[in-house]
Amino acid sequence: MSLYNVLFTSLPVIAMGVFDQDVSARFCLKYPMLYQEGPQNLLFRWSRLLGWMLHGVGSAVIIFFLTIASLKHQAFRKDGEVIDLSILGATAYTCVVWAVNMQMAITVNYFTLIQHICIWSGIFLWYLFLIIYGAITPSFSTTFFMVFSEALGGAPAYWVVTLLVAVAALIPYFTLAVVKTWFFPDYHNKIQWLQHAAKHADPEEELGVVLRQFSVRSTGVGVSARRDAKLVRTNSKVIHADSSSQSQATVELT
Amino acid sequence: MNSGDAAGSSSGGSGDAGAPRRASRKPKYSKFTQQELPACKPILTPKWVISVFLLVGVIFVPIGVASLLASNKVVEIVDRYDDACVPSNVTNKLAYIQNSTISKTCRRTLKVPKDMKQPIFVYYQLNNFYQNHRRYVKSRNDQQLRDASKANETTLCDPEKTRDGMAIVPCGLIAWSTFNDTYTFQHNTNNLSIDKTDISWKSDRDHKFGSDVFPKNFQKGPLIGGKTLNESIPLSEQEDLIVWMRTAALPTFRKLYGRIYVDLKENDTITVTLDNNYNTYSFDGKKSLVLSTSTWLGGKNDFLGLAYLTVGGLCFFLAFAFTLLYLIKPRLVAYKLSYTNRIKFHR
Fold first, then answer.
1. Where is the P-type ATPase C-terminal domain (chain A) (predicted)?
2. Which of A197, A247, B182, B251 yields a CA-CA distance of 20 to 30 A from B137?
């Protein structure tokens, strides 16, 4: 099952790491404050990392218990067959592959063709693997022999359970993501909203023209910068003053 | 790739007519390397979020209703008999069940609660029996089961590998502990025939259990764990064994015993004559007999329908809540930022 990590879910992650852009290059140059997300450690805080780990554990718990409760001791097909270890395992595995790939689809900010290929092929490859591996002689495939072709593929219960479990595993993350981007947006989220509005706005009225580039405080890194940035975030005002530069620009976002 | 000797060639051009062209080290432009591939940048706008939740709700609630209806259509009779089939004067149940001289025949009466249309499936259900225990699941040898020439392959079959120096076929704990209660049925005083063919998966019969492999040296030891096999029937036709060897996933499981192709009417009486042979008394296990019909979704399990309804209802609630928030918009900074133009610039 090390194939799981390598094939079915690594490609979307690699594609996300290489191709994802939360803010386009043009907007990055316009808003240098985005750079502060690095020194202020906004993206790799322990709270964020633990949040992701908790999400992983929570999804696993949802997938495991929902699958087991849906496929208990009763028959799962019209012909009266009951589940066994390999059938339950293959169903749970399918739910995991779907949940992880759909999670990638929700998380990715910049959907290129490559992302599409990686995500959908991840799912498609899993089914292909089930069919092909199941067709190999049972001295090699043991319990997975024909598990999809014979038992699962024609069982409506399998597809119904997969749909339920994959969606149920994603709803918590989706809800939290919505609440975060609507009410507690990070700086790059705000820029994304601006980007989105700029696409729909009157081309003559470019919002970017209004916001000038302003210089950053002389202490842009370190503990004092983090403390100040925290104050700034809580007041949701961005005030910059650079004593050494000629101009002083204040921008108030209401 | 442009030539690499840019610095060398350009620095020595002091006396030339025009400055020599500086060979550029700039890589060839391509959309792929400059990360400018055409892409869509999805963002969680209120319109999208609310419609996604509504869509999920609209899809899930009907599926939930359909699943619940299917589950309610299934008629199931479950009769636990391991406690009732031990005579009341027996104090040591374990000794009773292990005593092969006592007749263990037991009669049970079942009442049909609703009309049951054929095929009706007969299962035996075991509780607290961990067929998914790792050592148990590994205790078999698939090569021996499939191939008559590999009869002496007994790796991993401990402790049921050999008896008196000869290999046991089929070896292992799974085969040794095959369920051996038997049931015969009578429907309103008529004999009810039960079809015991095709109860196992076809792939098991054709590919995992050989048609030229015969049981040998089986259940000859001091401890008999379960069923004794007829040595003249090949393994591919021993369907009870095949069904049992497909190890169950959970500690409470059912296995198909047979099918009845007769319609049963409400309030019919089914008399079951069973042989209470199997020992579940040493580990607090339970045995039950189950008669059940089936639908497109399988047997009776309300959980699937209820879970769908719960998730669909939750999505509707979330759609409603997000709509409210969108309308009230207390601190929707991002929304405000994108759709209003109140950005003051002071100098």
1. 1-186
2. B182
